[in-house]
Amino acid sequence: MPIPKSEALSAEMLKPELHQSRSDDPMSDGSNLGPKVAEAVLTETETPEIDKKINENEVSDSNQPPKMPPSDPNLQVRIKTEKGNLWISLPGELKKEGSTISYAWSEIIQQIQQRLSGDSRSWDPNTPVRILANDRLLDTTQIQELTNILLQSNLSLKRFYTKRRQTAVAVATCGFSVEQQTAQQALITEASTKLLVADPMYIQMTLRSGTEIRHDGSVIVMGDMNPGSVVIAEGDILVWGKLRGIVHAGAGGNAGSIVMTTQMQPSQIRIADFVARGPSNVPAQFFPEVAYVTSQGKISITQAQNFTRL
Amino acid sequence: MGRVIVITSGKGGVGKTTTTANIGMALAQRNRKVVVVDADFGLRNLDLLLGLENRVVYTAVDVLSGQCRLEQALVKDKRRGNLVLLPAAQNRTKDSVNPAQMRQLISALAKVFDYVLVDSPAGIEMGFQNAIAAATEAIVVTTPEISAVRDADRVIGLLEANNIKKSGLIINRIRPKMVAVNDMMSVDDVTEILAIPLLGVVPDDEKVIVSTNKGEPLVLSGTPTQAGTAFENIARRLDGEKVEFLDLTVKDDLLSKIKNFFTKSI
């Protein structure tokens, strides 16, 4: 991904381009300006206020601004193919510090179903599935439910990994092979899963309202992001379609991350610790655009063709 | 096996029950064997819209608890014998039934009837899960309002996640005059976001309120109404017939288009 890595360098190079794109807009009021409205409104009107607030927070609270939602992708169901296996990792039952999210079983099932239908290009039918249940407590009906979902997608459960004895017993009762991890083993698997999910995630589906995708790499969406959908990625976010939801790139704090889309209409863009609201009026024409953080600490949008020249 | 279609919306008050009653009646008029199932346990309305309230003796919950046979709970329509209603219990909540029971109930009905229309409650909680449990198709009803469309979008996502891939969209209560002056979302605006096949557009019509209060679905009325004809067309499309659509590309004068369309089809 050719992102300008050095902050200083990229900032220097971004500046002139930025002024160019703004030159025809009066800095004070960026509303009703035709095709360039997207950039104008996003950067000029009210967003700087939000930017400043976040910046203050950042300064006072050292690294993580408290308003940002947790970006830990382990809070969600994760699906990953590796060496001919499909890994499904279930979020743990125990709450991570600082977060209040703990998904109910029905939500987990929904997430698995959504991910399996949206990502089916990434594996062949009958790929063996390995499930990492972590510390989640599962009973036999829930395991049956899981295997039914896998059957619908032409997948079969190969092995189950859990840290809980009761879950292990339930899986064995259902007739699947299970591996109970000790604390040490679990540490190793956690480290390795951390590594193996750093690739970009492909999603081929319309992300509808209420869908939330978290990933600790870059995310590529082939389809629209409808209003009310959320993508949180530690890397870049590319949306090949209409971006109308909320995106958070560089959620781990990398302000060099970008958001790239063919139709930029976000309700909110977050990059690292910066926040910007989307424009309230729809521009007449859409171009592929890129959102990035400028050296002034603002989120700015420019046409993709200009950005790649930087 | 009959077709099991759930009518749902996410948001309340957009016309799920009205749609169910009218499509059910219109299909019955086409000599299909239709059962409409009220899945709104605790807040049942479908019997009122069909004017069958005073004939309800047993409900779906009574069937599930074994207090009566399924046939006993079915209420035959007084005007159309091939339309029957399976009423919901008024004195229970949505948690009194689970998806497995619902599946059992619906599959028994699907063996006998051509169409099983399930009227889903608003929301996406247990009641919704029950309603969609046995369905293989869905009709998503929305109004041209941003909140209704947002909820419909969420619901479509949930339907897809629950393996109901075949869904049609009904845009209810559209006001062509308001659309023409850009005061209301147009059909195109709505379909652009929701991106599922359009099954029909129902114009806003005061007669719907009258028919609801009388307990007589609009499609039964002798004098043709815009909304009634729209529902009839939806039923025909559902039944596999090709019925010409409103010309949706023209926005400036949709009203006359609708008028033309209806006079043509009548």
Write up what this structure looks like:
The complex is a heterodimer of chains A (310) and B (266). Chain A has 310 residues and is of the alpha/beta class. Chain A is built from eight helices and 16 strands. In chain A, helix 4 runs parallel beside helix 5. By secondary structure, chain B is α/β, with parallel strands linked by helices. Chain B has a single domain, classed as Rossmann fold (3-Layer(aba) Sandwich). Chain B is 42% helix and 16% strand. The longest helix of chain B is centred in the middle third of the chain and has 16 residues. The two termini of chain B are 32 Å apart. About 2% of the residues of chain B have low confidence. The interface between A and B is medium-sized, with 17 and 14 residues.
Brief summary:
The complex is a heterodimer of chains A (310) and B (266). With 310 residues, chain A is of the alpha/beta class. Chain A contains eight helices and 16 strands.
Distance between the termini of chain B: 32 Å
Q: What characterizes the major β-sheet of chain A?
A: 6 strands, mixed
Greatest interface (CB-CB under 8 A), with counts per chain:
A-B, 17 and 14 residues
> What would you call the quaternary organization?
heterodimer
Give the percentage of residues in beta strands of chain A: 25-35%
Extended strand count of chain B: 8
Q: What is the arithmetic mean of pLDDT of chain B?
A: 90
Low-confidence stretches of chain A: 1-67
